[in-house]
Amino acid sequence: MTGRRLSHLLLALAGLLVALYPFTLGADPTVSCRGVELSPGQSCAKADGSAAQSYEARAADARNAAPVIVGVGLLVAAFGAGLFVADVRRDRRVTAAES
């Protein structure tokens, strides 16, 4: 297997791992603020103190991000797989032309 094909497969694998993240490590229901766990009703102030975000808003943002992460991961996986397939087809055409 050439280095190019291996890189295409690794790209596809990386995309699949990104797509699975919200269902594995990203599935943790804990809402935190700079490493400190929040409880319902609490808020998280920005580091510069300019604004705050409620527990509910942070939890909703995390839930809304999951479909986007899955979609981007699947697009990257499809792109890597497409590159791999195109490379295999190109090599078959070159081999057939040489025969």
From TrEMBL:
<keyword id="KW-0812">Transmembrane</keyword>
<keyword id="KW-0472">Membrane</keyword>
<protein>
    <recommendedName>
        <fullName>Cobalt/nickel transport protein</fullName>
    </recommendedName>
</protein>
<feature type="transmembrane region" description="Helical">
    <location>
        <begin position="65"/>
        <end position="86"/>
    </location>
</feature>
<keyword id="KW-1133">Transmembrane helix</keyword>
